[in-house]
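Re: zinc ion structure - here you go.
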Amino acid sequence: MGAFVALCLTTVTSLAVAYAGHRFDLAHIHLIGGIPVGALFIGGCAAIGTALAVRLFAIYDTSGMRVFAQFGGLMAYSGAVLLDYVAAHPNALLAPLTAQALESVKYLQTLVEQGSAAFARQLPGWVRLPVEVGFWVGGARLVIEIVGAIVATGWMLSMLTDVPFCWKNRRFYELRQLIESANMQAVREWEMAMNQRRPVEARAILARVRQGRVRPEDRRWVRIVVHQCPVCHASRLRIEGRRRGVGFARTETSQEITLDPVRGAALLAT
Ligand SMILES: [Zn+2]
């Protein structure tokens, strides 16, 4: 259910962003000839739909959602470029396939040339770029633009779904564990072991927490979400009481524990 809604919302936002991107020519806005500001904006906006679904259904930043969002970002970017292309060649879609393929290759070439021209403008007047170098620079800029759109989608998704950011290593935390357990007793013991910094016991209890699988007839259970910085191991744990309501599960209570790098590494090492 959640995944389906995420897919629908992602598609809708991506299409809307693709249209806006085409209207305002976003795919080709750059700073200093290289930084794809417009593409970053397209990617960022494309993540909104997925983030909304993640929030609505509390699915969190699982890797599946990230793939959805990034696919949406790619779709929004390529949609904008495609609309630009169709606007420039109104009859392109009616032409025979071979002619269409030829036209799109030519269009791609134009984009690459625009990129190299923009780069050349940043250089002092006496520097002349050989054509081959210009071609590679233009191609690299196009790739940076596409990658930029996808990266911006991931960043925006992390930001909107409340994933912590590590300022020291300048990266978002990664989802390390997402455990749903009906064994409330074990969860309480685990929490206590975490708070009293007994890592060995905490790890042993966590195995029991994992075993308490949530069955369809369970009305209440606990979800533990662990986000961790992949470099310094600072972490945030979120412990949520979940309850099956009418339709879908709701979060009743939640608390957060933040761990500094040393505690995070010791307590969450597996
Ligand atoms: Zn860090």
